[in-house]
Amino acid sequence: MSVKITRTGTEVVLDHNELANKGKRTHAEIDSYLQELDDARENKPSLQDKFRELKDKDDEQDRQLDAVKGAVSTFQTGLNTLSSTVSAAEAKNQTQDLRLSQVEQKNAQQDQAILKLQSDVSSNPNAEVVAARRDRDGRTFPSLKARLDDMQGKIGTGGGGGNNGEATSSSFDLQTPINILLNTFRDAETHNRSAYRQNNMYVDVFSDSSGIDIEKSSSFGIINGTVLPGLYDTNIIMSSPTEPAPYHVTSSSETSGYPGWMGINGNLTDSFYTDGATPPAEGHWWQIDFFVPKIITKVAIRAIGISAGQYGLSTFTLQGSQDNTNWTDLYVGSHANTGSELEHSFTNTSAYRYYRLAKLRSYRSANPVIYTGWHEIKFYEIIDAVTLVTKTVNVDRSPKKVITTAEYTDAVTFDLTLDGTTWVNNIDLNKLLDTSSLKGTNLQLRANIPATGSLKSLGFTWYDDSMLVEMPSKEGGGGDRSSTKPLVDVVAATNILRNAYRTLEGANQGASARHNLYADAFVDLSGIDLSKSEAFQIQNGKFTKAAGVPFSWKDLGVQTASSIGDWYNSSTSFRPYKSNSTTQTYAVEKIADDNAIATPGGNTDYWLQGGTSADLFMKWVTPVEIYKIILWMNGSLGQNGHDYCDHQIFVKNPSTGKWEAVTPRINLASKTDKGVHGDGSWHYPINLDHLVNEVKVTVWNKSSYMTVTEVQILQASEKNPVMVSKPIPLAKAPTHLMLDAEYEGNISIDLSLDGGTTFTTGVPLNQLVDLSTFLSGNSLVIRANLSDKAVLNSIGCIWYDKDTLPTYTDTVGGSSGGNVPGNGVSMIQVEKYGVTASPISPSEVNITIPYTSDYKLPPIEVLKFAPGKQNYTLEMASFSSNEAPSFDHDKYYMELDGTLRLKTDYSIELVEDDVLPSGNSVYSLTLNMDQYSSIEKIKVN
Question: Please, what's the largest Cα pairwise distance for the chain?
Fold first, then answer.
């Protein structure tokens, strides 16, 4: 029997159910164990026989004991007394074991509570502590005692005297920038982002090859965001004989409308087809120039089926060449007469620049050498190993330190250069690499991936002298000079802001100012001063350049087409531009006639057609940059089933020749839904990294007919975007501030403390800025100036006044010192979550909080111990039960009332005190009420 106690306390922070119900087994388990024993016994005596033998011996011993019972009866009273004493001692031991277990559990599971320390500082009156909240990542950190013990070895024990005034030395928190890189990998994967640089960090998760220097890298394949050696489709999709460069397709013969490049353009309805001309002696051929040598070991061909397959490809010889003159036969293939794609694999260990399908033959019984071709052909190359070189990243100034991290398999090695010529080979990952001896500002990495390896992500962060946080040594000796200087862990502050952005995004919340922190992830316009900001648009949390005026379809020379024609014309071919007055009613030309009016003009001004869905196409000669697409529909007439449609918009990427969706499918609430603007128009900001000369609009019918009045494409605004925040009220005039922003492209930040009247321009990011030279005030305004192509994803800052700014004492010695503990040792951070104490002078240390994407961080609680006072506590920041709704926490287990406590279940074994005449027993337990703040219930099992 046991008693279960549920209580609220401050000593133990996690549930102790794991300590209960140990050692219990079900009858089924016991039976299975006995059956195994019985099977293993074979002919040996059973357990039952052995037990009987033991019982007989035990009975004999009992008879012998009965003979001497009278001799020991006189000692019974004394034994009873001794038993009571032992029971009391056991109960005390149980209580001590329980308390010890509580302390051990607390030390092992502190990541779910605020570290709250109190101490009698008479033995060390100068200790100061900054404590930080833990994240919920399941990691176990060392106990406080273990950290303090470890700290003793780091403080140092001897003095070396002064250092001629040079008192600073760098100390570095290595894990935090690594954590930021790893979490940025996950964020880039979630948003399918290409390689990008942000501040002093660069990451690539290989969603595409945009971050790879193709010319300096060997052949490589990217599958699902991972660079792998192996066999890969070269994925060549031609749009002309020489596009995309540098590939080039030629053939000995081709029919008009069926050129050689259409046999490898990704479109299964197109085809390459010889024209019936007299072929060369060995037959017609088709070839491709890859520009760089490749080891091709497989081709896949989808043959044409003209004339019931008579002209389908029958046989061919694949040849390779380095010079387009001397050819080597690699494979002779026989192709089945089918319209399905068939693969041909073969052995080839040499890399060739040119590959040719020669000696082409068809299934036509007469003249098989004249007519043949295919819809599509694919080439697969073998990659034994990969040398991958990143594109150049301009780091502005020669970095002194670089940290590189990567996610990979097998023995991948990495090299680094700052000038593209001098490489440091086989660098260490996840370490602070000293690059002070290298010259240059163009940082590149080279990954050497073996045949059995792979590379999933790659990133690095760099530091110059202005970025390294320094902490002075503790100097001894005579002539010491001390001064107080600010100490802010910029990386930790940046990390907190990045976490705030993710929280705003996850909660779909606008700009937020709390305590001494401001953050805006541009979920909405709530943080932007619309009267002062310029030329911007916001879409999907991105602040970008606004659209300007629409392009003129007539000036672009647009042509239009519909996949199902229009009401009076079933033709699906492209038609040239015509103005509204010169086109037939409901014609497809209406969608691009420069007459974007939804209701005036009546039924003469829109395309109309029945059916379930349709694709509407617009194409023009010269690609242009698009910043917005507006779709107009004339369902507002509401007559004869002429209603609004569900829709989706696509653009064609000129480099790949593929359609890319720029909007999701928009499902309207009803057939009379006029959109958020209420006028039958739908506006979609566009942010593309390439020019466009083809647009497709897919519409789905919600009634009898589909209608589209006009499609407009808008060019960029003439002005560059400027973001001006609304004034942020401050309780006190700040003395220091740190700005952070997540952006792409080029931006500059200006700052005002007087509500936006006077700005200081060019304020640096991710540095502690001294505001003593700024015009003072307590109304903060941030102004971000974006370049033409820049994108601002988020912006924020943390500010400090004279009461909240963390500081340290800079002591510079001038003469030889004595045996001073800690002398000459730089202590910015003893442990990532450690506690730093100095026996010489107060030392305050910021402890980094790791980035988490799904957990809100409460303010950091700071406890200081001042000289001459015992148990003195100063809370720099705290939280109360009134603030509980502002934090994510498990309300069943947790209470917020100035501390953080967990409701915990305990199981305590009862002690049998006496046996009653009825056969029942009396049990008791010992409780020390000082261990519990409250007990909700006691349950006896």
Answer: 130
* Residue whose C-alpha is closest to residue 796's, from 467, 493, 524: 493
Query: What letter does residue 797 receive in the DSSP assignment?
Result: E
In 410-535, beta strands by DSSP E:
413-417, 423-424, 432-434, 442-449, 454-463, 470-472, 481-486, 512-514, 517-520
Q: Give the up-direction half-sphere exposure of residue 748: CA atoms within 13 A in the CB hemisphere.
A: 9
HSE of 283, CA atoms in CB hemisphere, 13 A: 21
What are the tokens at 462?
A: 């760099």
Between 285 and 92, where is the model more confident? 285
DSSP secondary structure code for residue 13 in this structure: -
CA distances from 522 to 44, 511, 543, 544, 923 (A): 80, 7, 7, 11, 65
Is the separation of the CB atoms in 310 and 364 below 8 Å?
yes
Alpha-carbon distance 115 to 565, whole Å? 71
Each residue of 116-131: pLDDT tens digit?
A: 333 333 333 333 333 3
How many H-runs (helices) and E-runs (strands) does the chain carry? 8, 58
Bridge partners of 605, per DSSP, are none
pLDDT of the residue at 190: 81
Sign (positive or negative) of CA dihedral 487, 488, 490, 495:
positive
Q: Which residues pair with 909 in a beta bridge?
A: 2
Cα distance between residue 39 and residue 35, in whole Å: 6
> Residue 502 has which token pair?
């993710």
| Residue spans of alpha helices (H) in 688-817 | none
Is pLDDT at 473 greater than 80 in this prediction? no
CA distance 133 to 525: 32
Mean pLDDT, rounded, of the chain: 75
Residue 385: which residues within 8 A CB-CB, separation 6 or more?
Answer: 218, 229, 448, 449, 450, 451
Residues 6+ apart with CB under 8 A from 759: 750, 751, 752, 781, 783
CA distances from 427 to 185, 430, 520 (A): 21, 10, 38
Contact at 8 Å (CB) between 477 and 817? Answer: yes
Please state, as a whole number, how many other Cβ atoms lie within 10 Å of the Cβ of residue 102.
18
- CA-to-CA distance for 550 and 837, rounded, in angstroms? 65
SS3 460: strand
Report if pTM > 0.90.
no
Calpha distance 11→103 (Å, rounded): 7
**445 touches 429 (CB < 8 A):** no
What three-state secondary structure class fits 704?
coil
3-state secondary structure of 591: helix
Contact 486, 812 (CB under 8 A): no
**Amino acid at the residue 182:** L
Per-residue tokens: 13 = 């922070």
Residue type for position 892: Y
Q: Which residue in 266, 363, 359 sits closest to 309, CA to CA? A: 363
Token couple for 802: 């004279």
What stretch of H or E contains 187? Answer: helix 175-190
Question: Is-contact 548 717, C-beta < 8 A?
Answer: yes
Strands 393-394 and 442-449: antiparallel
First-to-last alpha carbon distance for the chain, in angstroms, is: 6
Asked if the peptide bond before residue 244 counts as cis, ω within 30 degrees of 0, the response is yes
Question: Of 138-147, 759-768, 801-810, which range is least confident?
Answer: 138-147
Closest to 451 in 3D by CA, of 350, 390, 351, 383 = 383
| CA angle, 687 then 688 then 693, to 5° | 125
Query: What are the φ and ψ backbone dihedral angles of 414, each rounded to 5 degrees?
Result: -135, 140
Angle between helices 76-108 and 144-155 (to 10 degrees): 60
